[in-house]
Amino acid sequence: MSPNAERLYALMPAVYRERDAAQGYPLRALVSLIAEQILVLEDDIDQLYDDLFIESCADWAVPYLGALVGISDAAASRAEVANTLAYRRRKGTATVLEQLARDITAWPTSVIEYFQRLATTQYLNHLRPEHVTQVDIRRPRLLGTVFEQLPRSVEVRRIENRRGRYNIANIGVHSWRIPAFEVNDAPAQQVDARRFRFDAAGRDIALFNRPAAETEISFRAEPWNVPMPLSRELLADHPARYFGTSLSVAVGGVEVTPAADQTWLDVFAVCNLMDFDGGWANMPTNRIAIDPELGRLAFPADAPPPADVQVGYHYGFSARLGGGNYPRQAGFSAGPEVRVPEQHVTLQAAIDAAQVLLLDDAVDGAVVEITDNAVYTETLMFTVAAGKWLELRSAETRRAVLAPAAACVLGGGAGSEVRLDGLLIAGAGLSVPASVDGEVNQLQRLVVSHCTLAPAVTVFDAGPATPIRLRVESRCEVAMRRCISGPLRLAERADLTLSDCIVDAADPAALAVAQDNDGPAGVIDMTRTTVRGRTHALGLNAVDSILDAAPQVAPPRIAVRIERVQQGCLRFCWVPPGSLTPRRYRCVPSDEDARSGPVYTQRLWGDAGYMQLASRCPLVIREGAEDGGEMGAFAHLQQVQKSARLRRNLPEYLRLSLETGLFFES
After folding, report:
1. How many CB atoms lie within 10 A of CB 40?
2. Given 36, 74, 176, 497, which residue has the most CB atoms within 10 angstroms?
3. Which residues is 662 bridged to in the sheet?
4. Rg (CA), the chain
5. Average pLDDT of the chain to the nearest whole number
């Protein structure tokens, strides 16, 4: 019994308690149920008081409190309602526009009054010493960003449609939609004895700054308050702002920092480490060289080669998608845990120990949790007991790299399940064979969440072509959620479920989902997913998805080919013309109305804007989903809806005759 139930039971007359004990305590069981409902009632009464305040109210109460201060939009955020009175007291100022944009969209924002950037002559009775009309051509500051201070001549085009900017009445609202994700204590990818890359998979990636929080509504955003790529110029000009916070380097477990009589630039040199003459340019002689634009690191020639180099940095990406160091704990399975490397040095030893736990009838499943960001090159073998599940995952805010030389074998008995969470999978990847050790593989389900099955060549791959990271040859259901993947090869008996995923074959004419011989995979069910490449399957159900495929020329192959066209349905999707699919509902384009396909900000895995729909993407794709938002893997971000709400709310806080334009910096 709970303490509450015990106190309530003690209030009963002793004669009733004695009779209750004689009859097996039915009265005490009833009192326990009553006590539970009393606790629910007490919590509800406590919440009634909390609902009076925007900081502590339940989510359902936010629009009602908003109505009290004159906000009629039911989608208003908690921050917007909390700051409404402050907005109105500062109406007409650039600071309130900046804060309003952040509260509505949750995007870091900088508001620019363009009349301050115009090259004009000055009135002698109203001098502005900071207003210059000359350009420092030796080193123009923050060139190409919204924070540049170059003087401009006037533009008369409208800012609302983002064609013109520099005019007296124009206000620019510049937002950064791509956040910066943190990676800590990760091994640097070694090129040779002195050259390293920050990314463990060996990609050249742009390092981002860690945005410093703005604590006052009157504060104007600076370059270090928004998530933007770190330029060499910015890092060299403000090393104390970024070293130790946005990026760090440790050798042998000890972080590299300047001594008391040194500065950061006495230890690090910020330079361009581009490819040059078979190596890297500007290799250092007496300092550690860092190139934040390429994500490269080089150690000086006058010191011994470093051992065990670990780095901390931030990278940019549109969403919490794929293997990353963002919070994922809400989706973790509960069960007995085996930890690596605390309890076992190797992953296979930990998996074997977890599989022993599954032999206990009282245990339904077990977890192998990796608590570091290390690279594991073991070839793993899963043999899950019948009716049990086994989960291999990275710990919260960790992302381990699994790069086996040979494909990891996933197998199990009838009704068994393997779950993967928070991993970057490269190398030979994963295999679900038809048989394991001469016996039929009866693994029923493979669940992959928040993982990246590398869609491009990494340092762990032997050849120039990207290998298949997941191959399923048995009757196994595959479910992927919030994943990024390269091409998938599934047997005809293997069904596939995709939710908020990217499947990228690197070429629209290449094979994304099918069998090796271009035979059909099983039935595919996809929601808010982007598939780049051809699809061949038995059946298909799709909602708010993009099937970005092109027909193969020789031998001729249809872009999207579904065998059972009488079953399934496609709703609010982009499907290439000429595809053979089940019936479609409000999909684009129709075969009679061929339109241009999706346009992405960037198509290279590792770039911050990877597979993000560009602003020049056709409107029928950017606003063609069921809720009026964009189709594809980033539909859950609701960026179209946020932009529309911001445009509706901005005019209320503008001075008379001013115009605004919304610009996406990322």
Report:
1. 10
2. 176
3. 173
4. 29
5. 92
Q: Is the pLDDT of residue 4 over 90?
A: no
Cα distances (angstroms) measured from residue 128 to each of 14, 106, 111, 116, 448: 88, 34, 20, 10, 59
One-letter amino acid identity for 312?
A: G
Element (H, E) at 352: helix 347-357
**Domain extents in the chain:** 3-50, 90-173+644-664, 180-316, 321-472, 487-633
Single-letter residue type at 544 = D
In the numeric block, the tokens 């308690």 are attached to: 17
DSSP 358: T
Tell me how far CA of residue 284 lies from CA of 179, 303, 557, in angstroms.
32, 11, 52
| Residue from 422, 427, 340, 431 nearest 382 by CA | 431
Which 3-state string (H, E, C) describes 54-91? CCCCCHHHHHHHHHHCCCCCCCCCHHHHHHHHHHHHCC
At 135 the pLDDT is: 73
Residues, the chain? 666
Cα–chain-centroid distance for residue 592?
37
| 522 to 519, 541, 556: CA distances (angstroms) | 10, 12, 22
Q: Which of 106-120, 476-490, 556-570 bottoms out in mean pLDDT, i.e. has the lowest?
A: 106-120
CA–CA separation, 239 vs 242, rounded Å? Answer: 5
Confidence band (pLDDT; 50, 70, 90) for 404? very high
Cβ(396)–Cβ(327) below 8 Å: yes
Amino acid, single-letter form, for residue 11: L
User: Dihedrals φ, ψ of 264, to 5°?
Assistant: -60, -35
b/e burial code for range 208-235 (CB count within 10 A of at least 16 → b): bbbbeebeebeeebebbbbbbbbbbbbb
**How far is the C-alpha of 306 from the C-alpha of 312, rounded, in Å?**
16
Asked whether 187 and 200 are in contact (CB, 8 A), the reply is yes
Predicted confidence band at 559 (pLDDT cuts at 50, 70, 90)?
very high
Is pLDDT of 285 > 60?
Answer: yes
Contacts 24+ apart (CB under 8 A), 485-490: 485/452, 485/453, 485/455, 486/453, 486/454, 486/455, 486/456, 487/455, 487/511, 487/512, 487/513, 487/533, 488/512, 488/513, 488/521, 489/514, 489/515, 489/516, 489/521, 490/514, 490/515, 490/521, 490/522
**d(Cα 575, Cα 587) in Å, to the nearest integer?**
7
Q: What is the mean pLDDT of residues 277-286?
A: 93
* Other C-beta atoms lying within 10 Å of the C-beta of residue 193: 11
Whether 342 has a pLDDT exceeding 60, the answer reads yes
pLDDT at 512 over 70: yes
Where do we find the tokens 């640097």? 188
The phi, psi pair for 196, rounded to 5°, reads: -140, 160
Report how far residue 174's alpha carbon sits from residue 255's, in angstroms, rounded to the nearest whole number: 36
pLDDT value, residue 627: 94
Structure tokens at 489: 């090869």
The pLDDT of residue 145 is 85
Average pLDDT over residues 421-425: 97
By C-alpha distance, which of 658, 627, 656 is closest to 644?
A: 627
Q: Which residue has the higher pLDDT, 589 or 595?
A: 589
- Alpha-carbon distance 78 to 246, whole Å? 29
Beta strand segments in 62-218, E: 109-113, 170-175, 180-187, 189-190, 195-197
The CA–CA distances, whole Å, from 559 to 46, 139, 494, 511 equal 58, 50, 21, 9
